[in-house]
Amino acid sequence: MSEHSSESTVLDGSHPAAEEVQSDSEEGAMAQESPKNSAAEIPVTSNGQLEDSHEHSFNRDLKRSLPVGLGLSETKITSHGFDSTKEGVVEAGPFPGKGGRVQQKSGPVVLADEVKNPAMEKLELVRKWSLNTYKCTRQIISEKLGRGSRTVDLELEAQIDILRDNKKKYENILRLAQTLSTQLFQMVHTQRQLGDAFADLSLKSLELHEEFGYNADTQKLLAKNGETLLGAINFFIASVTTLVNKTIEDTLLTVKQYETARIEYDAYRTDLEELNLGPRDANTLPKIEQSQQLFQVHKEKYDKMRNDVSIKLKFLEENKVKVLHNQLVLFHNAIAAYFSGNQKQLEQTLKEFHIKLKTPGSDAPSWLEEQ
């Protein structure tokens, strides 16, 4: 009787030990029935990181489980520690494996040191120009007030002064020659009209036919000779105008550039002299060195411009003598032949200098050009 009661007590499920045994047996049965998935078993080390041996197998199983239509070449699982805010992140991209190559993204490489800002470049140019203008203005004012020193090339300055004086005299000759040409043109025009009037009266006045005819022929001859002289004078004016307004003016432009270079040279020379007279310390030595470099640059520029001016003055003198010699001979011979009435000598003078007279109306376009 007692044995039977003890067995019933053991089989009763209300006992704590019996409940634990029963729950363990149920969990074991469930574990056997459910298939094992390697993706559910992720071994974690003590510091919260995945073991390397199981990470690759987990990635391989997950790639097999993903659908084929995703269009991903490789899939990689990145696991982070417990202190990271990103957990279970799936990164799609090239997976480094055996035989695989990681594609590196290429793009434009911008070097910050080589990038130049146009606005900063313009600002730097304006700053240099302002500084140079200030130095040159100060040098000019100092020279006019008699406080500053200037570099003078006595021989070259004398040649420049002679050239400027000659230019003024040549311009005066041009004005007088143009006045003579204008007056001669009006006289020739008047003589031609007077000759036409005499010729008309010669036909209508039978009593004075011969007298009007003589005067008509004389005025027409004078008009013809006047046109020849007018052609010689205009050729003289054109040649001297080219000499004065182009050749001499080009040389004077070089002279202006030389004078500007001289002012800049003296301005930076004065700055360097002032710095050399001052104290020499860590702050002034870089300034002295920079001023020395700028002085050397402007000195070379000044020497170059002085050499250019000397060469141009030499060539100008040779060209001026040659041109004026021919033009003065032309002017003299034409005037002498005209007022002496030597028509053949006047025509010979124009042929000698290859001067072709323009016939009246030759400047007008022909009927072919108008079409």
Describe this structure in words.
Strands 1-2 form a two-stranded antiparallel sheet. It is rod-shaped and about 110 Å long. The chain has nine helices and two strands, in the order αααββαααααα. It is mostly helical.
Basic shape = rod-shaped
Largest sheet: 2 strands, antiparallel
Q: Please tally the helical runs, counting DSSP H or I stretches of 4 or more residues.
A: 9
**How many E strands?**
2
* CA-CA gap between termini: 150 Å
Give the strand order, joined by hyphens, for the main sheet.
Answer: 1-2
Helix content: over 70%
Strand content: under 5%
N-to-C series of helices and strands: HHHEEHHHHHH
Oligomer: single chain
Q: pLDDT below 50 for ≥5 consecutive residues: which ranges? A: 1-53, 68-106, 108-114, 360-371
Summarize the structure.
With 371 residues, the protein is mostly helical. It has helices spanning 2-11, 16-33, 52-65, 118-145, 154-204, 209-277, 284-339, 343-352, 367-370; strands spanning 75-78, 89-92.
